[in-house]
Fold each of these.
Amino acid sequence: MDIRGKVAIVGVGHSEQGTLPGRSPEQLSIEAIKSALDDAKLTKEQLDGLITCKSVQGGNADVQVGPLFGLSPQYSQTLDYGTCNFSLHLAVQAILTGMAETICLVYGANARSGRFNFSASAPNLAGASGFVHIAGQGAMALQRHKKKFGTTDEQFGMFAVSEREWARLNPLAIFQDPLTIEDYLAKPYMVEPMRREDVTMISDGGVALIVTSAERAKDFPNKPIYILGMAEQSEIRGDYFDDYLMRPFLKKSGEQVWRNTGLKPSDIDILYIQDPTAMWDLQMVEHYGFVPEGEGGPWVAEGHTRPGGSLPLNTNGGQLSESYMWGWLHIVEAVRQLRGTVEPQRQVPNPELAMYCSTMTFMKGACSIIGTHQ
Amino acid sequence: MSAPRPKPLPDVKAPDTAGFYEAAKRHSLVVQKCNNCGEMRFPPLPICSNCWSSDQDWAEIEPTGTVWSWVVYHRALEPSFADEIPYAVGRVKTTAGPTFTVRLNIPIEEIEIDMPVTATFKDVNDEVSLLEFSKA
């Protein structure tokens, strides 16, 4: 089935980001929904679908958001780990099969003020060995990448540096302090070979999107941003597969999306990658074919992902510098860039195609290509 | 002064993994082996992921392997390990096949990917012995 241009994003919104004590994930979801409805000039009664994404610390299922939402839409679902990509794909499927016409997708979390423990150790051998926190897995993959391909700290650090450069152009971004590659290299390792700057922050907030059919999209005030391609690939065997930390399965997600759309990586104007650690950036620029495998280090060191570069990456500052919203703010930023409505200092000139790549830990990958034309 | 926070320990009595920790007490490295198709795995599963047979036993394997990758914790992300910082954790591919992500009892400056290692065990208390890997 060709899905190209049949569904569009017509509204985006979010709550404040940062430390927001006293607000539940569900309440932050409603704040984000209200913001997205305002953007689309819709009322909640005009939605016939709701897809919530469970919060990183639990909660935010549709049946938990429902009482605050105050309506029962025809179509309601929850994804455990939407990362916005899986959520968007489900919305496209629901709209194209007639299950719903105008769907709100939402994420909310209060992991920061709720003091969610990201270093919780499992009662198993790895936990007892002190192998805790996502930085451990990210660093394990980076160490192997360095050995196999000669990637250096000077090269890898450019992901964190370029995301910070973008964040400094984004008033919403939480981390705004200047970060040069010299600053980066002077920082201590947290989990060697990864530094604190390579790892996401923890933050509170909510993010929402409004998605509808292309026919209806023309009735909305905003320039519709069309879904042009989408693909997923699982590796749900997890760590029973030796190389799971390197995530080679993501190549298959890339192969699908390029084949289905007839597009190629060089067609993409702006790239977004969900980045719990900067290692995800390195893996996905390689596995999705933006650079040959093993060449991500030298490539990023050339400055392509920075403001003014040939492939702007995470122009919001990403999860390393903007906020930790499981990738949801990435696609909000992509929509605003394609509309041409971000603050002028970080607007990429006339972008037409953006791509968003995300993963559910080491077990699933998803990507979407969105654009200004059907 | 409050008492030091206890370090996390594996649940050595859990039915699916008890056999592994009983062998670890004897400083023996075992993995789960399917009696139907011969597949070997760790962590254990209730059935074989290859042939779905539930006929399986613990099998002792050669305590040898190579370092697939490794990291060094310079910050005690789990606070109870603060007194051990910096410590190294490696993902080790055993000669028999299964991989283990555990401590490397090797000076940090000597650790390298692909280096040969051998299983050793650290006796934590009367019940718990933890697998580590040391220089072969």
Note: Chain A has 13 helices and eleven strands.
Amino acid sequence: MTTITWHSKTGRGVLVTGALFVVALILLPLFGLLAALFNPPLNPFIEAPPTLAEIFGQSNVPSLLWSTVSLALVVSVLAGSLGTWLAWVEQRANYRGVRFLSLLCLLPLAMPSYILAATLRESLGPGGSVGQLFNFPMFTGFMPTVLVLTLITVPYVQLLVSAVLTRLSVSEEEAARSLGASNWQVFQKIILPRLRPSLAFAILIVQLYVISDFGAVAVLDYPALTWRLYQAIDHQQLAHATLLGTAVLSVTVLLLLIARMVHGRVQADQQISQPRLPQRRCLSKRMLYATYAVQAFVIGGGVLLPVFTLSQWVLGGVLNDLRFASLWVPLRDTAWAASMSGVVIVVLAAWPAWIAARGSKRIAWMVEQGTYLTSALPGVLLAFGLMLAALFLSRGLGQGGQLYQLLLGSGVLLIVGYTMRFLAEAYAGLKTAILLLDPRLQDSARLLGASRWRWFSKVTLPALAPGIAAAFVLIVLSVVKELPVTLLLGSAMGLRTLSFRVFDRYQEAFLHDAGLAGLVLLLIAFMMVCLTLRWRRHV
Amino acid sequence: MLKKITLFVLSAVIVSTHLHADSLVVYSGRGEALVGELLDQFEADTGIKVSVRYNSTAALATQLLSEGAESAADVIFLQDPGYLGVLAKAGVLQPLAENVLDPVDPRFRDDAGYWVGTSARARVLVYNPDAVAGDELPNSLRDLADPKWAGRMGWAPSNASAQAHMTALRHLWGEADTEKWLAAVKANKPISYQKNAPQVTAAGNGEIDIAWTNHYYYYRLKEQNPKLNVAIHHFPAEQDAGNLLMVAGVGIRTGANNQVAAEALIAYLIGEDAQTYFAQHGFEYPTRTGIATAQGMTPIAELNLADTQQQMLADVTKTLSLLRALGLQ
């Protein structure tokens, strides 16, 4: 870890305060849940509160834990390896269509898990457009859930790993090649060791995604903790929900501990910020076909089939002369939610990311664990905890319900909810980018007499730009797709986003409306991915 | 740059706060798909700003009780009358005026006048006519426990409508019979669905032969895909417990901030236009007397309804315990 040579005392103070502020935010919903535990909200539908033994006896927590953990492990291994493969070919391989196919492989980023699950369930199930060709069995349970969540998380790995690959020095790779090393040897000996920290982040994010996802497990009726938790909250079985929530938290903390063990040491001074472009290598025939197959799997399953199924739904509406609901409100509300939270989250994540990359180890550790913990909280639990926290705060400050209504109605709680939910995504990307900053540039700037602001704006910011852009895109995409926080906190301010529209209309079997809103949502996300990639190339 | 961002965020927050001040606040346990356009239309017609909070009926009911007098809600629009009954008992709802109660069929409103039904849904069986012969169709809901349905049936035990139906069964049949029936149905290994709509599609695809669901999913999916190979079945047995009608209803919060606007909205929802919308757009049963149902739908009079009170549907907690004990939840 480099020593801090540049920050003044006030600068460091600002950073630490900012990081602590973010940590305080993180504790808010936990506070709400705790307060609710000791001062439980009235539940008119329970005659006598169940005893602990009853709750434990009925909860099947061990089997739910196992089904959740096994799902997270299998998905993260699959998504981690497929995503790294795709990132490597995107940056290093030379074959027909590599750029275009790599771009298409990122498109499942646009896909909310409930849309993918619902459309694949329909198209791959019996009687579906693909399912009836191959006589597939019913599309529910473990394997279909693994399939859906892998398709959705592969692009996250590809994006994060690929961003690191563009920043790695290629001289060692070239040296190894001049000594006759194969693609695989170079990858294994040179690239993989340097990818380890970001790969660990990527895998961690995949596991966090799986543990907190509720769309796919709900549509496919997979017995995951989150799905049962959602049902418990939906039915206001709060004691039961607390138990399940605790189980989710325990899994998360366990994951963080494992991740720490896996986490490799990063040497900030080994990497340079403006590398030469590497020479792209040709693939062997076998590798080429395998790569095409992986890309066909990701693009076909994660993009084409869902789009085809959504289009079928729209076509059903057109052919049968049904009226389509206007998309104006969903578009307006989506734009508001995504842009607001994108800016807020990237700014907020920069603080802990900088601290973690450059600050004291102990604070960095605290901040990092806090960031992951909060983003691992399932959206449902988080939104519910935030509402409770705001209500208790409001009453505690003697404001009655007015402050609570203001926080809820103004969208502050919603943005806080999104922030907590997605902070880790922005954080992981930004931290990696900051770690890759060459500390020598900092020294050169200092030697040349540049002011701190000048150094930051002329050297640091441009070098960080790809990382910031990648983080922003991840956040905006996540918010556009997000469901539980949007449902609980967004609808509390009358917000009706595209994701809300899709979910709501699908639930009520207005498939033509769900299909149209889903297609528009995907189109917006697709354009955003293209824009960023273009922008990234200019840097 | 940081300053600019902070300013932007602050101003956006302030702007959005002002956007939502002084509007009529509706807590809706009904989906936006069912009532969103109506509420937009009400806004356009009257100039009254409406801010709707959509959530599950159970969550909104609990939220209302924990918010107490500090709640922002004016109008409370829920999917199940049982919950409205609980809220009325807790003093959250105020009695409604005669003029909004009178046009509605007395079966579909609260006896004490605390809430009024806006539309209703029927519980039905949807089947694939290629897989189930006409004479094979069950006479009563009880017959679904017959082993001949092993591996052929779909249901949605985690769905609120199904759970409300099971709650009604506990009142109609008693606890022991209901538990026995659920255990027997479970032994038939029905395929569980999270929602009702996929069940109907599944019956059409031949994934299952029969689906235990709400009537309107059949009509909506059939409208979008007339070739979907499904038919609808109401149980022929006299007043069978399978032929259940569930009402969605609306009330006004005690101490509502916008009393006049709230009354106007309720009058609008039971008015002829809104009632026709419920009937034609969502294939629901209108609660106002004299409104036609959508074409091709079984009239209410021919549903051979079970003898239930809407309040029976609220006691869902015991149903959930039962489902968990049976490993169905």
Note: Residues 18-39+60-538 of chain A form a domain with the MetI-like fold fold (CATH 1.10.3720.10).
